[in-house]
């Protein structure tokens, strides 16, 4: 029960941070959904740093409060896949094929690379 | 203020539902749980986008369900983590995971948008 509550708490804060960054940045860029690229790659980097640091510790990861709060709750909700899918489809529907490709490649590979980079930074 | 409350509540419930799906789907090394969450969340956000396109949905509903719930339910950071973990056992499975998540997410979002548009038209006729 505690783990559910702590996940909800992390998720609420994560989603709220994404909302704030989204409203702050989206007014400044129009051609590419820059806000979601940034949120997703930064969130992936953060999860990487967190993952790298628990790899070195002897915490029982999957059952810990910290893991539910930071890993599943906060970074899980801070980053998003649904907005990525919908924004990519909208760019394609507007025939902005090049922007759509840049958006998809930078989000997917950016997230994977920055997650690995985050892990490597701390181990 | 109203929007922030909607996002906080949506994000909390999205993350809890994701935790629930995670605990239900631990039968394989392939990250089926994250895959299911990302695809179904993309579909739901697509529906919402389609409905909002053609009707004046209150902003707190759009933000609460879209940014909060769908955003909190789906995840890119765990997707990235899954990809790296899977890469250590099978590069083929990793490529399948990335390809199917992206293609599936976009297809689900597109179908969702079409369903949402249909719904909003029906809605208009009825009301």
TrEMBL record, chain A:
Pfam families: CRCB
A cellular component annotation (GO) from this entry: plasma membrane
Primary localization: membrane
InterPro entries referenced in this protein's UniProt entry, alphabetically: FluC
Localization terms from the record: Cell membrane
Keywords: Cell membrane, Ion channel, Ion transport, Membrane, Metal-binding, Sodium, Transmembrane, Transmembrane helix, Transport
Domain of life: Bacteria
Transmembrane segments: 6-25, 32-53, 65-89, 101-120
Membrane topology: Multi-pass membrane protein
Signal peptide: none
Cited NCBIfam families: crcB
Family statement drawn from the similarity comment of this UniProt entry: Belongs to the fluoride channel Fluc/FEX (TC 1.A.43) family.
Function text: Fluoride-specific ion channel. Important for reducing fluoride concentration in the cell, thus reducing its toxicity.
Protein name: Fluoride-specific ion channel FluC
Gene that encodes the chain: fluC
UniProtKB/TrEMBL annotation, chain B:
Regulation: Na(+) is not transported, but it plays an essential structural role and its presence is essential for fluoride channel function.
GO biological process: cellular detoxification of fluoride
A single GO molecular function term of this UniProt record: metal ion binding
Pfam families: CRCB (PF02537)
Keywords, ordered alphabetically: Cell membrane, Ion channel, Ion transport, Membrane, Metal-binding, Sodium, Transmembrane, Transmembrane helix, Transport
Residues where Na(+) binds: 71, 74
Subcellular localization: Cell membrane
InterPro entries in the cross-refs: FluC
Regions that span the bilayer: 30-53, 60-81, 93-117
Cellular component GO terms held in the UniProt record: plasma membrane
Membrane topology reported for the UniProt record: Multi-pass membrane protein
Catalytic reaction annotation: fluoride(in) = fluoride(out)
Family membership noted in the UniProt record: Belongs to the fluoride channel Fluc/FEX (TC 1.A.43) family.
Role according to the record: Fluoride-specific ion channel. Important for reducing fluoride concentration in the cell, thus reducing its toxicity.
Protein name per its UniProtKB record: Fluoride-specific ion channel FluC
Record organism: Bacillus solimangrovi
Gene: fluC
